[in-house]
Amino acid sequence: MGITLDLYVCPAEELPFEDASVDLLTSFTAAHWFDTEKFMREANRVVKPGGCVAISTYTLDMSLRYGNCSEKLTKVFREVRSRSLNLGASPPGLGRGKCLDAER
To answer: pTM above the 0.70 mark?
Structure first.
């Protein structure tokens, strides 16, 4: 069984997906520009139950705000960021200086 990956470039606050249709929603180096409240509503709408939202940013002091789990989300975000920056480590699964082949 292969993995199907579709890449979309679109406003984070107006996602072009049906309700509960997305397994993984990602954003890298852009979340600090989002209207967080609108984005989180959209993410909640489109991500399947048990799905995942993965956000990464260069903003070191970023806080995540969502419902009653804001503190926990921010703690997890900062821990992952700290671990990935430790000694210049690459993110899991990526080697230093390697590019992903866009046609894979």
So the answer is: no
